[in-house]
Design a protein that fits this description.
alpha/beta, D-Maltodextrin-Binding Protein, domain 2, 13 strands, globular
Length: 257
């Protein structure tokens, strides 16, 4: 069984569970994204949210003919804010896992990405098994399935938790940690940046579904059945009409769905 290492994340969420749930069929949809996870979400030079998740959210809203409001929300508070009805949906590369399904409802996946370790160039990372990483410092974003995985499976490593993956990357490039664990697609984007020139992806991909789920989905409140169906239908719609492929090509030279 997966240990609930991100209990702070879920405990905060459960504080909002007392809020009555309702079926959403509204035209105005408030969407939360993270804003610190390029290329999926970040804040651009004009102070607006941008990225793959944001483009997908806007395309889905257009397909639903809905007026959407998209805002950045700190990761730790993103599910509690949804349940407290500050937002109606989360489009923030949220892994679909059994633990999270106990708290929120998910659409079908809208992309998939294995998890990988990223290391400094020249670093021997052929073996990234728990045994090989005993006593090694490993960075990871806090309150994520990646941190749960490391704390369960790599408990003999030195697991260092960061508020954002960008903070973990900085310590990796500075040599304060030897590894960072994150989604491959997000790592791929960082490696193309000037800061990412220091590093490379370790060859082993991790796809433990108990921790990393069955893909990335849009999270909604469990009672919002009508809104969930609208999003599912819209996902099918943007795939069918080619919109998804155009967004995919804007960010990645390979299919992610």
């Amino acid at each position: 069984m997966v240990k609930a290492r991100f209990m702070r994340f879920l405990a905060l969420a459960c504080l909002a569970c007392l809020v009555p749930l309702s079926v959403s069929a509204q035209t105005k949809i408030r969407i939360a994204t993270e804003g610190t996870n390029p290329p999926f979400s970040s804040i651009d030079a004009s102070g607006e949210v941008a990225g793959f998740d944001v483009d997908i959210a806007r395309a889905l809203c257009a397909k639903m003919q809905a007026d959407c409001e998209i805002a950045a929300q700190d990761w730790d508070g993103i599910v509690p804010a949804l349940l407290a009805k500050k937002y109606d949906a989360i489009v923030a590369s949220l892994n679909i896992t059994e633990d999270r399904k106990n708290v929120v409802a998910f659409t079908k996946p809208y992309y998939r990405s294995p998890s990988v370790f990223v290391v400094r160039k020249g670093f021997d990372a052929k073996d990234v098994s728990p045994k090989a990483l005993i006593g090694k410092p490993v960075g990871v974003q806090t309150a994520t399935n990646h941190s749960a995985f490391l704390e369960d499976k790599y408990h003999r490593s030195i697991v260092r938790l960061y508020n954002t993956v960008a903070d973990a990357y900085r310590d990796l490039s500075a040599g304060r940690v030897d590894y960072v664990l994150f989604d491959k697609l997000a790592v791929y984007d960082w490696l193309k940046s000037p800061e990412g020139q220091c590093c490379e992806i370790a060859p082993t991909e991790l796809s433990d579904e108990a921790y990393f789920g069955s893909g990335m989905g849009i999270a909604l409140r469990k009672g919002d059945v009508a809104l969930l169906k609208r999003f599912d239908d819209a996902i099918d719609g943007i795939v069918k009409d080619g919109t998804y492929a155009k967004i995919n090509a804007k960010y990645f030279p390979f299919p992610v769905f």
